[in-house]
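[step 3/7] fold_predict: job queued, chain A
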Amino acid sequence: MRHNRKIIYIAGFLLSMPIALTSYINSSILEIYVNKYYLGIIYVIASIITIIGMLKMSKILTYLGNRLTTLLFSLLFLLSLILLALGGKDFIVIPAFILYFISSNFIFASLDIFIEDFSKNSSIGAVRGAYLTIISFAWVISQMISGSIINKSSFQGIYLLSALFAALVCVVFTLFLHDFKDPKYTKTPVLKTITFFLQKKNILKIYLINLILKFFYAWMIIYTPIYMHQYIGFSWSSIGIIFSIMLLPFIILDFPLGKLSDKIGEKKMLIIGFLIISISTLMIPFFTAKELFLWMFILFTTRIGAAIIEIMSESYFFKSIKKEDADVLSFFRNTNPLSYIIAPLLAIPILLLVPSFKYLFFVLGAIMLSGFLLSIRLRDVK
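[step 4/7] structure written:
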C-alpha cells in the first residue's frame, strides 16, 4: 500500500507539471483566436462537456477499471498538448484545449480514487496533505521555469515540454498499479446524488466551500496573467517569478495543516483561511505599480488563505465519504469545471460594465466572503 501510494504521488507530480506549466498561459494562447472579453466561453463549453462526462464516471470505471481509465485519459491529455503546441489554427487549438480540460479533470478524479484506497481514515488529512504538497512542488517548479521557456521558444516550447511530462504519466500507468483492485463502484443516479448532497447539510456546505475556492482559482487563472501582462506591464519571466513565490504557501502549509486537521478538525482553519483570502484579494486593485516584491507579497498572501481552505476542504470531504462512492466523488470534483462556467459568465458582463480590469478583483474578494459565512455554519467531522 505504501509503495502504491508513492506511485500515485509520482503520478500526481508528473501530471501537475504540464498543468502548472500551461494553466496560466492557456488564456493568452486562446486570446490569439478569441477576443479576451469572450475567451471565457471556451472554458464554459469545456466545462459543460466535462461535467456531463464526469456524471458517467462510475460507468466508465466499472467498465475499464481505474488504472485503464487513468491511462486512457492520460493518452488523450498527451494528444491535446501536442495539438496545442503544433496546431496553429483555431479549428485545431480550440478543440485541443477542450480535450486538455476534460482529460486533466478526469485524471485528477481518478487519482483521488487511488489516494482514497491507499489511505486509512485516521490519516486522511496527513495523506492528502502530503499529496497536495507534492502537487504544489510541481506548480512552484513550473512557474520558476515557464517564463524563461516562453521567452526562448514562445508558447510552443511550454506545450511540448508539458507533453513530455504527460508521456511520463502514461508510462507510469502502463507499468505500475496492475495489482490495484477496483472497489465495486456505486452507481447512483444524478438526482439521487444531488439529493445526497442536499440531505447531508455539512457535505453540501463543504461542496460549496470547495466550489468557491475553485471559482477563485478559475478567476485568477483566466484573468490575472492578462491583467499583470497587459495592464501592469510585467514580462512573462517576471510573472513566472511572482507566481513561483505566490505558490509557496501550498508547499509550506499543506502537509502540517493536513496533520493538524486530523487532530482539531477543519472548521476553525477554514474560517481563518477565508478571512485571509478575502481581505488580500480585495487589496489587489490597490496594487497598480509595476513592483515585483509588492505583487509577490499580495499574491503570496492570497495563497496562504487558499492553501488553508484547500487542505481543510479536501480533508473534510474525504473523511465523509467512501472510496466506492465514485458518483459522489465525481460530483464533488465537478466543482472545478463548474467554476469555469460560473467565473467567465459572471466576469463577461462585469468587464463590459466596469471601466477597468482591476474591478474584477473587488468582485472576487466579495465572493470569497461568502465562504467565510459558510465556514462559520460548518460542523466538524466527528
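[step 5/7] annotate
The chain has a mean pLDDT of 86.
Residues 2-376 form a domain with the Growth Hormone; Chain: A; fold (CATH 1.20.1250.20).
exit 0
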